[in-house]
Write a structure and sequence with these properties.
By secondary structure, this protein is mostly loops. The chain has one domain: Herpes Virus-1 (2-Layer Sandwich). Helix content is 13%, strand content 10%. It is built from 2 helices and 3 strands; from the N terminus they run ββαβα. It has a 3-stranded antiparallel beta sheet with strand order 2-1-3.
């Protein structure tokens, strides 16, 4: 099951479970669309893979399958691709 990480790893923007601008790689590294397009140019800085839109988990499913609360913030890892 996807972790649904709560924020963009580059800019720290909040990405709640219903966010339509959340992108993930195959390892669930999570970024906002703006960082994926403008800073990362579509390539995950952690694994080198591409991104897909993160699915939205229906609100009713969040009760028994809550999103992650652990924030990952590593702007230094995103700075070289501007």
């Amino acid at each position: 099951m996807l972790e649904l990480r709560p924020n963009c790893e580059c800019c720290g923007k909040d990405l709640p479970p219903a966010a339509t601008d959340a992108m993930i790689c195959t390892f669930e590294c999570t970024f906002c669309c703006d960082c994926v397009e403008d800073r990362l140019r579509g390539v995950c800085p952690n694994c080198g893979g591409n991104f897909s839109p993160r699915p939205i988990r229906p609100a009713a499913e969040l009760v028994n399958n809550p999103p992650s609360t652990q924030r990952v913030f590593n702007p230094a890892g995103c700075g070289g691709r501007t």
